[in-house]
Amino acid sequence: MLAVGVAFLYLYLNSPTVIGAEGERRVNATLARKLDDQHYIVLEDLTLPTNHGTTQVDHIVLSRFGVFVIETKNMSGWIFGSESQARWTQVMRCRKFQFQNPLRQNYHHVKVVQDLLGIRLDQLENLVAFVGSAEPKTEMPPNVFWNRKALLHYITSRQTVQFTENEVHDFARKLRRSALGANKEIRRAHIQHVREKAIQKETDLSKCPRCGSKMIERTNRSTGQRFYGCCRYPKCRGTRQAD
C-alpha cells in the first residue's frame, strides 16, 4: 500500500500540471521581488472570460511603459522551433515531443487582454519565459527568454511611456474584476473547455481536408515517411502530414 502511495505521489509531482505551476511560481516570485512596485503591477494566474469560454494567463505585468503578457514553460531537454512554426519540438533522452508554438499560444492571451483593456495591440508585449533546464538548439525570437534575469532586463529596458499612472491602476482593476474566481467549479469548467477544444481538434484532424472523409495512416514508399491519406483515394487525393 505504501509503495502505491509513493508511486502516486511521484506521478503527481511529475505531472504537467504540477511542473507547470512550479514554473509559474518561480517566474512570479522573481517578477514580484525584482520589479519596483512603484512602477509595475504584477498579476498572476488569471482565468479570463473569452467569447468562447475562458483562457488562463500565467502573468501580466502592467506599467506606464506597456502591458507585458507572459507565458511560462517549465521544460527540460533541447528545444527546436522558430517564430513561424506552428509546433516546436522538445528532444529529451533521444525522444521527440511536439508542443504548440508558445508565442502563438500566448498571442491568444494577448488579444484577450487587449480586448478587455481597450488598448492598441502595439501597446502589449507577447513574452515567453522558459524555466527549468531546457536549452534552445535553434535561433529563437528576441521575445523568448531562457532565464528570468533576461526576462527582467527586457521588461525594465522598455522606457517609452505609453500610459499614465492612473490608466495603469485602472487596467489592474479591470483585469481583477474580469478574472474569474479560482474556485473548483470555474476551474472544472475551464478544464472541460480545454478538453472539448482538444477533442474537436482531434476530430478535425481525422477528416480529409478536401472532402471530409476518414483519413487513413499510410507510408511513403520512397521515403518511408508516415502520412495520412483520404480513404477515397484515388478519387480524392487529400493528405495530411503525420505528427
Structure explained in plain terms:
The protein is α/β, with parallel strands linked by helices and 243 residues long. The two termini are 39 Å apart. The protein has helices spanning 2-13, 16-34, 102-117, 148-157, 165-178, 184-205, and strands spanning 40-50, 53-63, 66-74, 78-80, 87-92, 95-100, 124-131, 135-136, 144-145, 215-219, 226-230, 239-241. The protein contains 6 helices and 12 strands. The radius of gyration is 21 Å and the shape is globular. Strands 1-2-3-7-9 form a 5-stranded mixed β-sheet. Strands 6-5-4-8 form a 4-stranded mixed β-sheet. A 3-stranded antiparallel β-sheet has the order 10-11-12, with no helix packed on it. 38% of the residues lie in helices and 29% in strands.
